[in-house]
Amino acid sequence: MPFVLPEPKIEKWDRATTEPLADYGVFKVVRYGMRDPAGAPRRPVHCFECPDWCNVIARTPSGEIVMIWQYRFGTDSMTLEVPGGVIDPAEEPIAAARRELREESGYEADRFELLSVVEPNPALQGNRCYTFLAHGARLAGETAFDDLEECETVLVPERALGEVIDSGRITHALVVSALETYARRALR
Amino acid sequence: MPFVLPEPKIEKWDRATTEPLADYGVFKVVRYGMRDPAGAPRRPVHCFECPDWCNVIARTPSGEIVMIWQYRFGTDSMTLEVPGGVIDPAEEPIAAARRELREESGYEADRFELLSVVEPNPALQGNRCYTFLAHGARLAGETAFDDLEECETVLVPERALGEVIDSGRITHALVVSALETYARRALR
Predict the structure, then answer these.
(1) Any bridge partners for residue B156, and if so which?
(2) Which chain A residues are Cβ-neighbours of B13 within 8 angstroms?
């Protein structure tokens, strides 16, 4: 019998006020005045606002996934990720995925399909991250990094994704979540 | 033949300066002055600093996972998550997992083991999220919410996790990543 998820009996809170506090470029900090379901005021909370993001799982015809090494400012370390980035204003998520794949790895692909949409951190930020599968990936030319970016492409056989994750070499939660969902649906 | 991941040939950048800009309680904003591998100064970047976080996948003896509905400020919505939260200063990750499970769901468990460690967002923040498996979970008493928290427990059969994720009802990337890794290792 299929599992039917019970809806919550508790109710959502509401934002009584939204106050922009600071704009740091890649994210803005906002303060929300909160009201609980009974209408009672609660102490304000701080969150950030970011644009939506995208990731691309690009698969070559021989079953390899296009990944990149990249230096990351938050962790001050090199991380192994799939290509991805910020979706520009008025840009469709699928167009951003195609652009980021080309810029960061030099790869293009025949067909893009949406694999999953997750929320990077509902507690602190409201944006979404779209992951696309790109089929028929092939090296098409040079990379085109922005001024704070430098990437190195690595092809990882899709059958090895689980062991590379378990070895602790893929740590970015948005990349792990995308690759694990891909592996569950496509590789079993 | 096992896949051997090639190490990156590109080198990491360095933080030349670290400047605290603002303290918002749950996170701090910092500015890093950057230097590329050639030693050249680059424009500064903004990141946030947060404490480490933990998540708990608590399994009942009959194969159900303890999940919670919770209102989330960042997305202004109810989300379905596993218990978890901020690891207090000087608290061991496993102790935080045990505490958060008890506070948010009222459940306790016999044995906790580390499942995975991910970085929530290496691009913007340096913290880690530890996920523990808790075996032999059982309802032990009342919940104990903090002043901005209200949760409702839902038991989800572990065999249904994939379909609940695919239905779009579990959206928190840290929860999806933890549950997918659990399902790959434990349920195949």
Answers:
(1) B65
(2) 71, 73
Range of the domain at A129: 53-186
Q: Do A153 and A179 sit in the same domain of this protein?
A: yes
Domain-located, residue B93: yes
- Cα separation, A173 vs B180, in Å, equals 11
Q: Tell if the CB–CB gap between B126 and A79 is shorter than 8 Å.
A: no
**Is residue B5 included in any domain, yes or no?**
no
Summarised one tens digit per residue, pLDDT across range B56-93 is 999 999 999 999 999 999 999 999 999 999 999 999 99
**pLDDT at position A44:** 96
The string of pLDDT tens digits covering residues B31-47 is 999 999 999 999 999 99
The minimum CA-CA distance between A109 and chain B, rounded to whole Å, is: 23
Task: Kindly tell me the burial class for residue B33, based on how many C-beta atoms sit within 10 Å of its own C-beta (0-12, 13-18, 19 or more).
Answer: middle
Check whether residue A76 and residue A127 sit in a common domain: yes
Taking the C-alpha atoms of residue A162 and residue A183, their distance in angstroms, rounded to an integer, is 8
- What is the ipTM for the molecules in this complex? 0.96
> Within this chain, do residues B20 and B108 fall inside the same structural domain, yes or no?
no
Classify residue A9: in a domain, yes or no. no
Provide the pLDDT confidence category of residue A155 given band limits of 50, 70 and 90.
very high
Tell me the shortest Cα–Cα distance from B105 to chain A, in angstroms: 14
Same domain, A74 and A116: yes
- A77 and A140 in a single domain? The answer is yes
